[in-house]
User: What shape does this take?
Amino acid sequence: MSALFYFIFVVFLISVIFLKFLRMRRYFFKFGELSSFAKNEIDKGPIVHNYTEIYERFFSLLKYKPIKIVEIGIDKGNSLNLWKAYFPLAKIYAIDIIDASYLDSRRVKTFVADQANREQLNSFIREFGNAYDIIIDDGGHTMNQQQISLGFLFKYVKPGGYYIIEDVHTSFPKFCSGYGVAKGGENSTFKMINNFYENGTFISKYLRDDEIDYLNNNISYINLYVRNNKRHSMASIIKKKEKSV
Assistant: This one.
């Protein structure tokens, strides 16, 4: 009798685990959901840059985890709503030079800072901590802003996490002018990324030596995605090593 009861219990337990697995599998492999949440309200969605299609391939396994996200650049807050919808357990932090505290909620916190000012970025870290799973730079897109933010904030990405620079195409004045690209493009963010590819090191007039060393030693890989559209939309996904040096 006890053996039969044990057998039934094991079968029941396996069935429950299997059903939970099927349910989680359905969630994990439901690609296209992030883009559907973006609708036509966010330029990172299908209507403009379509970065969401790319992001979902990296973010899907984090969907139901209690992660921490930072986004630089708030505008009307549509991106914050996107992350709230896609990551139901995430805490979301946002940085902008304009106060957007009216968007604050239990899961969303905003902070006023200039992304090119290390002292102000450090104030954000002091208030909200570190170990972020994802940091997304969708801020001002100028060369100094993109590179200073990367150099300062990358150390606060969680090991194995992601740092994303959106709109790297601002490195090319023929596509987007007015973003501080010097003649010849030597100071451009694209040039900085490409130099890492060619020579294994970052070269940037905006980065400190300690920041360059940290990037060189702690980046696992860099992906640069280029859309075949009118804007030549570019986003760089930088993954941090599982163990920081």
User: Anything to note?
Assistant: The longest strand covers residues 157-166. The beta strands are 68-72, 91-96, 108-112, 132-137, 157-166, 219-226, 234-240.
